[in-house]
């Protein structure tokens, strides 16, 4: 009876035929579609980074970023805490980022800051948190007042909105005084929205959860959109500024100057913003 099993020589010949001798090909051990998978992963990671930074990707052109401009003009407080006039400053939270105004020395119950803050508005954020502190030299700064403000829909529609907002504090909800804010909203290329990172600090006196410690988000650095040249602020003469103030006698001069600064000295844009505020 003849065996049908291959002999040892046949088995060795079969093994040699299966061996690959020489340099490996470029596609060795690479699954089909790997390049496409890498591109898809890159696009997904880029979209996630832009979403976390508040940027949206249009069909064409560079990513767009939502920006909120907040002018913290002044406040009228109900009480001066302490034996001397208070030195108030404002701490503002937008999303995970904290911004502060300068201190108004001896501002007391009527501090003025006229501070314009430009910040990113992350997706889903529709409110801001605000605290007023009395700066102290040898002790912890004292929390005077706080409030939670929902961003008006008119602002998100592109209008400039100016209003007085009630403050909460030791006197009770809405009884600690009022603060004057000017809000405006815009959407533009992410390259313009370059803001320095601001560390978030814990807060324990506002009646809501302590602020988490995150750095301010940056626009996606790669691929970098083409840089855009910003126009330098325009300089208005005192006569032109006086003309604007005479056009809006019911709006305080400090508020007019803050709106002018937010519009980078553009006279026409400032007048349009003041017209929206006076409606």
TrEMBL record:
One of its GO terms (biological process) is ubiquitin-dependent protein catabolic process. Keywords: Autophagy, Cytoplasm, Immunity, Inflammatory response, Innate immunity, Repeat. Belongs to the tollip family. SMART domains: C2, CUE. Its main location: cytoplasm. Residues 49-165 form the C2 domain. One of its GO terms (molecular function) is ubiquitin binding. It comes from Papilio xuthus. Residues 236-279 form the CUE domain. GO terms for cellular component: cytoplasm. This is Toll-interacting protein. InterPro entries: C2_dom (IPR000008), C2_domain_sf (IPR035892), CUE (IPR003892), TOLIP_CUE (IPR041799), Tollip_C2 (IPR037301), UBA-like_sf (IPR009060). PANTHER family: TOLL-INTERACTING PROTEIN (PTHR16461:SF5). It is found in: Cytoplasm.
